[in-house]
Amino acid sequence: MTPDFLIVGAGYAGSVCARVLADAGKTVHLIDKRPHIGGNAYDERDANGVLIHPYGPHIFHTNAKKVMEYLSRFTTWRFYEHRVLAQVGEQLLPIPINRTTINQLYGLSLTEDEVQGYLDTVREPREPLQTSEDVVLNSVGRDLCDKFFRGYTRKQWGLDLSQLSAGVAARIPTRSNDDDRYFADTYQFMPADGYTAMFERMLDHPGITVRTGVDFKAVRGDFAGSHIIYTGPIDAFFDHCYGPLPYRSLRFDHQHLPDTEQYQTVGTVNYPNDHEYTRITEFKHLTGEQHAGTSIVREFPQAEGDPYYPVPRPENEALFKRYAALAEAAQGVTFVGRLAQYRYYNMDQIVAAALKTAHDLLETRDGDGGGGQASPN
Protein backbone atom coordinates (compact mmCIF):
# COMPACT_ATOMS: atom_id res chain seq x y z
CA MET A 1 0.00 0.00 0.00
CA THR A 2 1.38 3.39 -1.01
CA PRO A 3 1.97 5.64 2.02
CA ASP A 4 0.54 9.13 2.17
CA PHE A 5 4.01 10.66 2.41
CA LEU A 6 7.54 9.79 1.37
CA ILE A 7 9.98 11.82 3.44
CA VAL A 8 13.57 12.08 2.24
CA GLY A 9 16.02 12.66 5.09
CA ALA A 10 15.73 11.54 8.72
CA GLY A 11 17.23 14.63 10.35
CA TYR A 12 15.25 17.26 12.22
CA ALA A 13 13.18 18.43 9.25
CA GLY A 14 12.16 15.00 8.07
CA SER A 15 11.66 13.44 11.49
CA VAL A 16 9.52 16.26 12.87
CA CYS A 17 7.37 16.26 9.73
CA ALA A 18 7.02 12.48 9.98
CA ARG A 19 5.80 12.55 13.58
CA VAL A 20 3.32 15.42 13.09
CA LEU A 21 1.81 13.73 10.05
CA ALA A 22 1.69 10.31 11.74
CA ASP A 23 0.01 11.79 14.80
CA ALA A 24 -2.65 13.14 12.41
CA GLY A 25 -3.32 9.64 11.10
CA LYS A 26 -1.17 9.75 7.96
CA THR A 27 1.10 6.93 6.83
CA VAL A 28 4.72 7.94 6.37
CA HIS A 29 7.71 6.26 4.77
CA LEU A 30 10.93 7.93 5.93
CA ILE A 31 14.23 7.22 4.18
CA ASP A 32 17.82 8.38 4.62
CA LYS A 33 20.90 7.56 2.56
CA ARG A 34 23.03 7.36 5.70
CA PRO A 35 22.92 4.19 7.84
CA HIS A 36 21.28 6.02 10.76
CA ILE A 37 18.60 8.52 11.72
CA GLY A 38 19.17 11.97 13.21
CA GLY A 39 21.03 13.63 10.35
CA ASN A 40 24.05 15.64 11.46
CA ALA A 41 22.69 15.69 15.04
CA TYR A 42 23.17 11.93 15.33
CA ASP A 43 25.25 10.91 18.33
CA GLU A 44 26.75 7.60 19.41
CA ARG A 45 29.20 6.10 21.86
CA ASP A 46 32.74 5.77 20.58
CA ALA A 47 34.88 2.67 21.08
CA ASN A 48 35.71 3.87 24.60
CA GLY A 49 32.11 4.42 25.69
CA VAL A 50 32.07 8.22 25.48
CA LEU A 51 28.99 9.81 23.89
CA ILE A 52 30.22 11.83 20.90
CA HIS A 53 28.78 13.75 17.96
CA PRO A 54 30.35 12.23 14.81
CA TYR A 55 29.39 15.28 12.72
CA GLY A 56 30.66 17.91 15.12
CA PRO A 57 29.11 19.50 18.22
CA HIS A 58 25.38 20.17 18.32
CA ILE A 59 24.22 22.38 21.18
CA PHE A 60 20.52 23.00 21.45
CA HIS A 61 19.36 26.55 22.18
CA THR A 62 16.19 28.44 21.34
CA ASN A 63 13.90 31.31 22.27
CA ALA A 64 10.91 29.48 20.79
CA LYS A 65 8.80 28.01 23.56
CA LYS A 66 6.70 25.96 21.12
CA VAL A 67 9.83 24.29 19.73
CA MET A 68 11.07 23.47 23.23
CA GLU A 69 7.69 22.08 24.24
CA TYR A 70 7.42 19.93 21.14
CA LEU A 71 10.83 18.32 21.51
CA SER A 72 10.19 17.81 25.23
CA ARG A 73 7.67 15.13 24.24
CA PHE A 74 10.60 12.95 23.22
CA THR A 75 13.36 13.77 25.68
CA THR A 76 14.20 15.07 29.11
CA TRP A 77 16.90 17.71 29.21
CA ARG A 78 20.23 18.52 30.79
CA PHE A 79 20.82 22.22 31.45
CA TYR A 80 23.93 23.30 29.60
CA GLU A 81 25.29 26.74 28.67
CA HIS A 82 27.97 26.50 26.01
CA ARG A 83 31.16 28.48 26.45
CA VAL A 84 33.87 29.04 23.86
CA LEU A 85 37.41 30.39 24.16
CA ALA A 86 39.56 31.61 21.29
CA GLN A 87 43.32 31.20 21.28
CA VAL A 88 44.93 34.52 20.41
CA GLY A 89 48.69 34.37 20.81
CA GLU A 90 49.31 32.75 24.18
CA GLN A 91 45.93 33.73 25.61
CA LEU A 92 42.60 31.92 25.70
CA LEU A 93 39.90 34.59 25.54
CA PRO A 94 36.08 34.48 25.64
CA ILE A 95 34.21 34.55 22.36
CA PRO A 96 31.80 36.29 21.64
CA ILE A 97 33.98 39.29 22.51
CA ASN A 98 33.00 40.74 25.88
CA ARG A 99 34.49 43.00 28.55
CA THR A 100 36.79 40.23 29.80
CA THR A 101 38.09 39.63 26.28
CA ILE A 102 39.03 43.27 25.75
CA ASN A 103 40.50 43.83 29.20
CA GLN A 104 42.68 40.70 29.12
CA LEU A 105 43.79 41.17 25.53
CA TYR A 106 44.87 44.80 25.93
CA GLY A 107 45.70 44.92 29.64
CA LEU A 108 42.85 47.33 30.37
CA SER A 109 40.42 47.63 33.28
CA LEU A 110 37.35 48.99 31.52
CA THR A 111 34.01 48.99 33.31
CA GLU A 112 30.88 47.79 31.54
CA ASP A 113 29.93 51.41 30.87
CA GLU A 114 33.33 52.06 29.29
CA VAL A 115 33.47 49.10 26.94
CA GLN A 116 31.16 50.52 24.29
CA GLY A 117 33.02 53.82 24.44
CA TYR A 118 36.26 51.95 23.78
CA LEU A 119 34.75 50.09 20.85
CA ASP A 120 33.47 53.36 19.44
CA THR A 121 37.06 54.63 19.31
CA VAL A 122 38.37 51.60 17.38
CA ARG A 123 35.44 50.72 15.12
CA GLU A 124 35.45 51.65 11.44
CA PRO A 125 31.96 52.91 10.54
CA ARG A 126 30.62 51.21 7.42
CA GLU A 127 27.41 52.04 5.60
CA PRO A 128 25.68 50.12 4.20
CA LEU A 129 26.64 46.81 5.85
CA GLN A 130 26.92 44.61 2.76
CA THR A 131 29.65 42.13 3.69
CA SER A 132 30.76 40.34 6.84
CA GLU A 133 33.86 42.52 6.86
CA ASP A 134 31.61 45.58 6.99
CA VAL A 135 29.76 44.11 9.98
CA VAL A 136 32.88 43.23 11.97
CA LEU A 137 34.83 46.43 11.27
CA ASN A 138 31.74 48.49 12.03
CA SER A 139 31.37 46.70 15.36
CA VAL A 140 34.87 46.09 16.77
CA GLY A 141 37.44 47.61 14.41
CA ARG A 142 40.38 46.14 12.54
CA ASP A 143 42.59 44.68 15.27
CA LEU A 144 39.87 42.62 16.92
CA CYS A 145 38.64 41.66 13.45
CA ASP A 146 42.05 40.33 12.46
CA LYS A 147 42.67 38.56 15.78
CA PHE A 148 39.30 36.80 16.10
CA PHE A 149 37.42 36.74 12.80
CA ARG A 150 39.44 37.09 9.60
CA GLY A 151 41.59 33.97 9.89
CA TYR A 152 38.76 31.83 11.25
CA THR A 153 36.54 32.91 8.37
CA ARG A 154 39.18 32.09 5.76
CA LYS A 155 39.47 28.59 7.18
CA GLN A 156 35.75 28.04 7.70
CA TRP A 157 34.52 29.34 4.35
CA GLY A 158 37.60 29.43 2.13
CA LEU A 159 36.79 33.10 1.59
CA ASP A 160 37.72 36.44 3.10
CA LEU A 161 35.22 38.32 5.26
CA SER A 162 34.87 40.81 2.42
CA GLN A 163 33.56 38.02 0.16
CA LEU A 164 30.74 36.84 2.46
CA SER A 165 27.30 38.30 2.97
CA ALA A 166 26.74 40.38 6.09
CA GLY A 167 24.54 37.79 7.76
CA VAL A 168 27.42 35.42 8.55
CA ALA A 169 29.20 37.78 10.95
CA ALA A 170 25.91 39.10 12.30
CA ARG A 171 25.34 35.73 14.01
CA ILE A 172 27.97 36.50 16.68
CA PRO A 173 27.26 39.47 19.00
CA THR A 174 29.65 41.72 20.91
CA ARG A 175 28.96 42.28 24.61
CA SER A 176 29.96 45.05 26.97
CA ASN A 177 29.46 42.90 30.10
CA ASP A 178 31.18 39.71 31.29
CA ASP A 179 28.58 37.28 29.92
CA ASP A 180 30.74 34.51 28.47
CA ARG A 181 27.95 32.23 27.27
CA TYR A 182 28.17 31.54 23.56
CA PHE A 183 24.37 31.75 23.24
CA ALA A 184 21.99 34.07 25.02
CA ASP A 185 18.77 32.15 24.27
CA THR A 186 16.10 31.55 26.92
CA TYR A 187 16.31 27.78 26.60
CA GLN A 188 19.77 26.16 26.57
CA PHE A 189 19.73 22.40 27.09
CA MET A 190 21.09 19.11 25.83
CA PRO A 191 18.92 15.98 25.41
CA ALA A 192 19.61 14.01 28.58
CA ASP A 193 19.97 10.69 26.76
CA GLY A 194 21.45 12.15 23.59
CA TYR A 195 20.03 13.24 20.26
CA THR A 196 19.72 9.78 18.73
CA ALA A 197 17.52 8.60 21.61
CA MET A 198 15.30 11.65 21.08
CA PHE A 199 14.94 10.86 17.37
CA GLU A 200 14.21 7.20 18.11
CA ARG A 201 11.32 8.20 20.36
CA MET A 202 10.07 10.72 17.82
CA LEU A 203 9.97 8.09 15.08
CA ASP A 204 8.50 5.35 17.28
CA HIS A 205 4.99 5.43 15.81
CA PRO A 206 2.98 2.73 14.01
CA GLY A 207 2.31 5.13 11.13
CA ILE A 208 6.02 5.67 10.43
CA THR A 209 8.23 3.25 8.51
CA VAL A 210 11.94 4.09 8.66
CA ARG A 211 14.54 2.79 6.19
CA THR A 212 18.16 3.89 6.34
CA GLY A 213 20.90 3.33 3.78
CA VAL A 214 18.39 4.09 1.02
CA ASP A 215 19.03 6.44 -1.91
CA PHE A 216 16.03 8.55 -2.93
CA LYS A 217 16.61 8.16 -6.66
CA ALA A 218 16.69 4.37 -6.36
CA VAL A 219 13.23 4.16 -4.77
CA ARG A 220 11.45 7.26 -6.06
CA GLY A 221 9.53 5.28 -8.65
CA ASP A 222 8.03 3.07 -5.93
CA PHE A 223 6.12 5.99 -4.38
CA ALA A 224 4.28 7.49 -7.34
CA GLY A 225 1.17 8.22 -5.29
CA SER A 226 2.91 9.66 -2.22
CA HIS A 227 3.47 13.33 -1.50
CA ILE A 228 7.23 13.88 -1.15
CA ILE A 229 8.81 15.95 1.60
CA TYR A 230 12.40 16.53 0.53
CA THR A 231 15.08 17.72 2.98
CA GLY A 232 18.23 17.12 0.90
CA PRO A 233 20.14 19.57 -1.32
CA ILE A 234 17.65 21.31 -3.60
CA ASP A 235 20.06 21.38 -6.54
CA ALA A 236 20.47 17.59 -6.36
CA PHE A 237 16.69 17.10 -6.53
CA PHE A 238 16.66 18.88 -9.88
CA ASP A 239 19.79 17.05 -11.12
CA HIS A 240 21.89 20.23 -10.88
CA CYS A 241 20.18 21.52 -14.02
CA TYR A 242 21.38 25.09 -13.36
CA GLY A 243 24.73 23.96 -12.00
CA PRO A 244 25.70 22.94 -8.44
CA LEU A 245 24.99 25.20 -5.49
CA PRO A 246 28.19 25.82 -3.48
CA TYR A 247 28.34 24.16 -0.07
CA ARG A 248 31.10 24.07 2.50
CA SER A 249 32.03 20.72 4.01
CA LEU A 250 33.96 19.49 7.05
CA ARG A 251 36.39 16.75 7.94
CA PHE A 252 36.36 15.55 11.54
CA ASP A 253 39.37 14.20 13.38
CA HIS A 254 38.08 12.34 16.45
CA GLN A 255 40.51 11.39 19.20
CA HIS A 256 40.18 9.65 22.55
CA LEU A 257 42.66 10.52 25.31
CA PRO A 258 42.55 7.57 27.73
CA ASP A 259 44.49 9.11 30.61
CA THR A 260 43.07 12.63 30.40
CA GLU A 261 39.99 13.39 32.49
CA GLN A 262 39.65 16.90 31.02
CA TYR A 263 41.41 18.24 27.92
CA GLN A 264 40.19 21.86 28.01
CA THR A 265 38.28 24.07 30.42
CA VAL A 266 35.29 24.74 28.13
CA GLY A 267 33.30 22.82 25.55
CA THR A 268 34.96 24.40 22.53
CA VAL A 269 38.20 26.26 21.85
CA ASN A 270 38.50 28.19 18.58
CA TYR A 271 41.78 28.60 16.72
CA PRO A 272 41.29 31.63 14.46
CA ASN A 273 44.95 32.12 13.54
CA ASP A 274 46.78 28.85 14.24
CA HIS A 275 46.56 25.32 12.81
CA GLU A 276 44.52 24.06 9.87
CA TYR A 277 41.53 23.19 12.06
CA THR A 278 39.05 25.80 13.26
CA ARG A 279 38.16 24.42 16.68
CA ILE A 280 38.41 21.58 19.17
CA THR A 281 35.36 20.36 21.07
CA GLU A 282 35.44 18.13 24.15
CA PHE A 283 32.18 16.20 24.40
CA LYS A 284 32.09 15.52 28.15
CA HIS A 285 31.42 19.24 28.73
CA LEU A 286 28.32 18.99 26.55
CA THR A 287 26.94 15.75 27.95
CA GLY A 288 28.03 15.98 31.57
CA GLU A 289 29.16 12.34 31.49
CA GLN A 290 31.89 10.99 33.72
CA HIS A 291 34.75 8.96 32.26
CA ALA A 292 38.39 8.33 33.14
CA GLY A 293 39.38 9.47 29.65
CA THR A 294 37.98 12.08 27.31
CA SER A 295 37.04 12.34 23.63
CA ILE A 296 37.64 15.38 21.45
CA VAL A 297 37.13 16.36 17.82
CA ARG A 298 39.05 18.74 15.58
CA GLU A 299 37.20 20.29 12.64
CA PHE A 300 38.86 20.86 9.27
CA PRO A 301 36.72 22.85 6.81
CA GLN A 302 37.02 21.79 3.19
CA ALA A 303 35.42 22.38 -0.20
CA GLU A 304 34.61 18.74 -1.03
CA GLY A 305 32.51 16.26 0.91
CA ASP A 306 29.04 16.10 2.41
CA PRO A 307 27.27 19.48 2.23
CA TYR A 308 27.13 21.21 5.62
CA TYR A 309 26.91 24.96 5.12
CA PRO A 310 25.37 26.90 2.24
CA VAL A 311 27.91 29.54 1.16
CA PRO A 312 26.22 32.93 1.70
CA ARG A 313 27.17 35.07 -1.30
CA PRO A 314 24.86 37.12 -3.55
CA GLU A 315 25.61 35.05 -6.66
CA ASN A 316 24.80 31.83 -4.77
CA GLU A 317 21.52 33.28 -3.54
CA ALA A 318 20.64 34.21 -7.12
CA LEU A 319 21.32 30.64 -8.25
CA PHE A 320 19.27 29.26 -5.36
CA LYS A 321 16.31 31.42 -6.35
CA ARG A 322 16.28 29.74 -9.76
CA TYR A 323 16.00 26.36 -8.03
CA ALA A 324 13.41 27.78 -5.61
CA ALA A 325 11.25 28.74 -8.59
CA LEU A 326 11.38 25.13 -9.80
CA ALA A 327 10.47 23.95 -6.30
CA GLU A 328 7.51 26.30 -6.15
CA ALA A 329 6.19 24.96 -9.45
CA ALA A 330 6.80 21.29 -8.67
CA GLN A 331 3.70 19.24 -7.98
CA GLY A 332 3.45 16.74 -5.15
CA VAL A 333 6.69 17.73 -3.41
CA THR A 334 7.56 20.08 -0.54
CA PHE A 335 11.05 21.30 0.34
CA VAL A 336 12.12 22.00 3.92
CA GLY A 337 15.40 22.12 5.85
CA ARG A 338 18.86 23.69 5.69
CA LEU A 339 19.92 22.01 2.45
CA ALA A 340 16.54 22.12 0.74
CA GLN A 341 16.13 25.84 1.51
CA TYR A 342 19.82 26.76 1.19
CA ARG A 343 19.80 28.53 4.54
CA TYR A 344 22.16 28.42 7.52
CA TYR A 345 19.39 27.44 9.97
CA ASN A 346 19.97 26.47 13.59
CA MET A 347 18.33 23.29 14.87
CA ASP A 348 15.41 25.12 16.47
CA GLN A 349 14.69 27.02 13.25
CA ILE A 350 14.53 23.74 11.34
CA VAL A 351 12.12 22.29 13.91
CA ALA A 352 9.92 25.38 13.62
CA ALA A 353 9.97 25.18 9.81
CA ALA A 354 9.11 21.48 9.90
CA LEU A 355 6.21 21.98 12.31
CA LYS A 356 4.78 24.67 10.06
CA THR A 357 5.34 22.61 6.92
CA ALA A 358 3.58 19.56 8.31
CA HIS A 359 0.60 21.53 9.62
CA ASP A 360 0.30 23.42 6.33
CA LEU A 361 0.29 20.13 4.42
CA LEU A 362 -2.48 18.79 6.65
CA GLU A 363 -4.56 21.90 6.01
CA THR A 364 -3.91 22.09 2.25
CA ARG A 365 -6.07 19.50 0.52
CA ASP A 366 -5.13 17.05 3.25
CA GLY A 367 -1.55 16.82 2.02
CA ASP A 368 -2.27 16.65 -1.69
CA GLY A 369 -1.20 20.18 -2.58
CA GLY A 370 1.61 21.28 -4.85
CA GLY A 371 5.20 22.09 -4.14
CA GLY A 372 6.81 24.95 -2.37
CA GLN A 373 9.38 26.21 0.08
CA ALA A 374 8.81 26.13 3.81
CA SER A 375 9.32 29.10 6.11
CA PRO A 376 11.09 28.89 9.48
CA ASN A 377 8.73 31.41 11.03
TrEMBL record:
| The entry's keywords | FAD, Flavoprotein, Isomerase
- Tell me the Gene3D superfamilies matching this sequence: NAD(P)-binding Rossmann-like Domain
Q: Which InterPro entries has this protein been placed in?
A: UDP-GALP_mutase, UDP-GalPyranose_mutase_C
Which residue range or ranges hold the UDP-galactopyranose mutase C-terminal domain? 147-344
Enzyme class, top EC level, equals isomerase
The family annotation for this protein states: Belongs to the UDP-galactopyranose/dTDP-fucopyranose mutase family.
Identification of the protein by name: UDP-galactopyranose mutase
Q: Which organism is it from?
A: Roseateles terrae
